[in-house]
Specification:
The complex is a heterodimer of chains A (401) and B (467). Chain A is of the alpha/beta class. Chain A contains 14 helices and eight strands. In chain A, the strands form two sheets. In chain A, strands 3-6-7-2-8 form a five-stranded parallel β-sheet, sandwiched between helices. A two-stranded antiparallel ribbon of chain A has the order 4-5. In chain A, helix 1 packs antiparallel against helix 10 and helix 9 crosses helix 10. Chain A is globular and about 60 Å long. With 467 residues, chain B is mainly alpha-helical. Helices cover 45% and strands 1% of the residues of chain B. Chain B has a two-stranded antiparallel ribbon with strand order 2-3. In chain B, strand 2 and strand 3 form a beta hairpin. Chain B is flat and about 105 Å long. Classes of the chains: A alpha/beta (401), B mainly alpha (467). Chains A and B meet through strand 1, helix 3, helix 5 and helix 8 of A and strand 1, helix 1 and helix 2 of B.
Chain lengths: 401, 467
């Protein structure tokens, strides 16, 4: 694979940047993408899956909000484009990668019609919209040749148009961001149909479909045996403070950001890493947007460094972080539950189950479903001793010991 | 062992690489380039439309005609312009002339391809005259269609089938069809029509393929001689089509003259008339070809090449064949009935004079024109006028004065009608506009005529609507 541009390894911002206007300095920092270990690893696994080293037609990338999934998507898009460059020279009709965002359904039900429409618009298929006898009913172009889809355009026709386009444009990968919206459905049976639709489209067109989303994507690939055989799951998780390696990685990310903050006086972020961890729940994306906001304000105010007060003022409010942390805890618990399946597998296959499986080490388990015997008002015994523990189970927890 | 000291990570640049502009339409690969089965450009247009999931009409109207500089064909209210395009012009799209060159340019721009000229006869534009080159309608071999569909191959329209001298498919030993065999259709189609789809009738849209082993209709079966001739023609023309992409430079017109001279020298020692007689041509043919102003039609070229034991491709590349070709009695003769000289019956001036006088004497109403009389007598007006000018003039005069009288009657009637209609509208208390008046006329369009306008203005003045 061809790398986009040979870039000199910058370990800090260039000195001449300080002389430039604040917009340029902010833009410099905003454009820095730190190749931290989780991102690099998820990126490599995804790249391998797309290069065809596995026979997957569906790839699911899940992780918490703000961990850097969209950055991962952009990086993959960039690399697929760069790899296809020599091919594009003699096939100008090709579109190596299509990236789109699945829209949140307003009616509570995911709309395939909307999905196909968005995909077609991303492909900007010129001829979709003309005529209707062998083509797409309900889709037309207005006077400014913008695509207009009538509400009556039937989904099967749109799907056929999309399949034809993916095939003819020789699309190698379709990347669907916010794919958890696919789950917005009334019944589980429909969910399987949902995934089968995507899988068959991938198989028919030869374009690997990459679903990028939150932990809600978990379990989608296990809906049927065939589905799980043709899919690859990639977990893009947060950094966990209880693991020494993760702790070091998080500090390194902080150090990298610290070096690239185009300010006259370098702030000491690494020294206060626990605060940063707490207010970013271990997600680099959250951290980055926090730092960017603080930097913008600092530049505006003409400050020479990032003060503690400035950072404090622009951090996400605790209630937001709490809901984020809950989501992460639920997701990781669900992930851990999935990992426990090995014992059941051995049992099903008739193999001796040597030891009863224990919960995955250190993962904060949160009950995801209530037992039917629970009564309102009856406290669950496991909750009682918890008291001061943070839902993320780390940061402050460790602090407290 | 992991040390706890943090390090500075690399940063990525997420700028997208600059990619060349994407082609507006799919980069659809043409079928069979470099082989005798190269598809035709019109067939490619139909396949392109199918790949995009739209009707050929939509592709042509919205994408092709504007770039061909002829959007008015579709935007005008007159549907006949577009019909005339399908009917009369699409045959030229595979040919050697400007329209083919323009369509190649437009389609290469839209699809980003660079090889579409080989789907036409443009590489041979210098040496092949447009005359008698391509047939006006779509021709096909139903067995070929069926074989390809059953083999799961894309169905195309070979360029070969668009050429006039190719009338049969030697592979399936049958004549090419030009009329749809489906009941209720039975019509020919243009090479490209608004509903064209590869392998389908552009009129009734049904599949044109048919089983290979089905008993052939009598008009499809091919006699042994014809099959032999067609096999040779298909081979020779196919060789020409297949060779186009490999040509370093397209052959020049002068090459025909040079090869011709070499052949005449070789066969009859420089005697052109003898050479022509030997090949079954009119004696003037090589005289016309020799200066290079006229080029032999493809049909004639095939005839000459077959007799000389060469092929058109080799002829264009300078091979005049041999003086005594080793052919096994195979001769290419133009198909269809010969075009005989029309023999004029001997002139019977007296009979003719009697006939004309009889016409003059009769009080036939309306008096016939000279052309009508000539038609009745089975001759032309020019011929009659040449031999009997006075009688003819009298017939014409009588017809003309009748026409003039009819004309003034009509004008008077229109004037009167308009006059009355204008007064009637006025009496209803409304302004007698041209439209309101026209609605009361026996022929509403007649309001546009000069006398009607004059009568209308006059009535308006009388009624005080106009100064």
């Amino acid at each position: 694979m061809q790398m986009p541009l040979p870039q000199p390894p910058l370990d800090r911002y260039p000195a001449e940047l300080l002389a430039q206007p604040s917009e340029a300095r902010l833009a410099y920092f905003a454009a820095r993408v730190v190749a931290h270990p989780h991102l690099a690893q998820a990126h490599q696994t995804l790249l391998d899956a797309l290069r065809g080293s596995t026979e997957a037609s569906l790839v699911l990338v899940y992780g918490p909000t703000g961990v850097g999934k969209t950055t991962l998507r952009r990086r993959i898009e960039q690399q697929l484009l760069a790899a296809a460059l020599p091919d594009l020279e003699h096939d100008p009709g090709r579109m190596p990668v299509v990236a789109l965002e699945a829209a949140a359904p307003e009616s509570g039900q995911f709309s395939w019609k909307d999905y196909y429409t968005r995909a077609l618009l991303t492909l900007d298929e010129r001829l979709v919209g003309y005529g209707h006898d062998v083509g797409t009913r309900g889709v037309r172009r207005d006077a400014t040749v913008h695509l207009r889809m009538a509400h009556t355009a039937p989904a099967p026709e749109l799907r056929r148009a999309l399949e034809q386009n993916l095939r003819q444009r020789r699309v190698a990968a379709v990347i669907v961001d916010e794919a958890q919206h696919l789950r917005r459905l009334a019944s589980g049976r429909r969910l399987l149909d949902q995934m089968d639709t995507l899988k068959s489209m991938a198989a028919l067109t030869g374009a690997v479909h990459v679903l990028v989303g939150t932990y809600e994507l978990l379990g989608l690939a296990d809906l049927s045996a065939q589905l799980s055989r043709r899919s690859v799951e990639i977990h893009f998780g947060r950094y966990r403070p209880e693991l020494a390696e993760d702790r070091r990685a998080f500090k390194s990310v902080l150090l990298t950001f610290q070096r690239h903050l185009p300010l006259a006086r370098e702030p000491d972020l690494v020294g206060r890493w626990e605060e940063f961890y707490e207010r970013s729940v271990g997600c680099v994306g959250v951290l980055k947007s926090w730092l960017t906001r603080a930097l913008a304000a600092a530049l505006e105010a003409g400050e020479t460094t990032l003060t503690r007060r400035r950072l404090e003022r622009h951090a996400e409010p605790p209630r937001k972080l709490l809901s984020l942390a809950r989501e992460i805890a639920e997701g990781e618990a669900a992930l851990a539950n999935g990992d426990r399946g090995q014992g059941e597998l051995r049992r099903l296959l008739g193999l001796a189950t040597a030891e009863t499986t224990t919960p995955a080490s250190g993962s904060p388990t949160m009950p995801t479903a209530r037992r039917p015997s629970d009564r309102p008002g009856q406290r669950r015994p496991t909750r009682d001793p918890v008291g001061a523990q943070d839902p993320v189970g780390a940061g402050r927890g460790e602090h407290g010991h | 062992m992991v040390t706890d000291a943090p390090v500075v990570y690399l940063t990525w640049d997420l700028a997208r690489p600059t990619i060349p502009p994407r082609s507006r339409l799919f980069h659809l690969e043409p079928l069979g380039i470099g082989t005798p089965d190269t598809e035709s450009l019109t067939g490619y247009v139909a396949r392109l439309a199918e790949a995009h999931g739209v009707a050929t009409r939509q592709l042509v109207i919205h994408e092709i005609l504007p770039l061909l500089g002829r959007p008015h064909l579709a935007t005008t209210l007159d549907p006949n312009l577009l019909s005339a395009f399908w009917r009369n012009e699409t045959r030229a799209l595979n040919g050697t002339q400007t329209l083919a060159a323009n369509l190649v340019r437009v389609l290469e721009h839209l699809t980003g391809r660079r090889d579409l000229r080989f789907l036409t006869l443009l590489p041979w534009a210098e040496v092949l005259p447009a005359y008698h080159l391509q047939r006006p309608s779509h021709a096909w071999c139903s067995a070929c269609y069926e074989t390809r569909r059953q083999a799961g191959q894309p169905v195309g329209e070979p360029l070969l089938w668009t050429l006039q001298p190719v009338t049969a498919c030697p592979r399936h030993r049958r004549r090419l069809r030009t009329i749809c065999a489906h009941p209720g259709c039975g019509r020919p189609s243009p090479p490209l029509g608004s509903r064209s789809r590869p392998g389908h009738c552009a009129r009734c849209r049904r599949w044109l393929g048919g089983a290979q082993d089905v008993d052939l209709a009598s008009d499809e079966a091919l006699a042994h001689n014809a099959l032999q001739a067609q096999t040779w023609i298909v081979h020779a023309v196919g060789e020409l089509i297949a060779a186009a992409p490999r040509l370093a430079t397209p052959p020049r017109r002068e090459q025909i003259t040079r090869t011709l001279a070499a052949s005449v020298e070789q066969v009859t020692g420089g005697n052109r008339s003898a050479w022509a007689r030997r090949l079954g041509l009119t004696t003037g043919a090589p005289d016309n070809w020799h200066p290079g102003t006229m080029r032999p039609s493809l049909e004639r070229l095939l005839q000459v090449c077959c007799a000389l034991g060469t092929t058109p491709l080799r002829f264009f590349l300078g091979d005049p064949g041999s003086a005594d070709p080793p052919h096994d009695g195979l001769r290419i003769v133009p198909e269809g009935p010969p075009n005989p000289w029309r023999l004029r019956p001997p002139l019977h001036r007296l009979t003719m004079q009697r006939d004309l006088e009889a016409v003059l004497a009769s009080d036939e109403q309306p008096p016939p024109s000279l052309r009508e009389v000539a038609q009745r007598l089975g001759d032309t007006a020019l011929y009659l006028r040449h031999h009997l000018p006075d009688l003819c003039r009298a017939i014409s005069e009588r017809h003309l004065s009748y026409q003039r009288a009819r004309g003034s009657e009509t004008r008077a009637r229109v004037r009167d009608e308009v006059h009355r209609a204008t007064y009637r509208v006025h009496a209803e208390g409304r302004y007698p506009s041209a439209r309101r008046v026209s609605l009361l006329l026996s022929d509403p369009v007649s309001i546009r005529s000069k006398p009607a306008r004059a009568a209308w203005h006059e009535a308006l003045r009388e009624l005080g609507w106009q100064p």
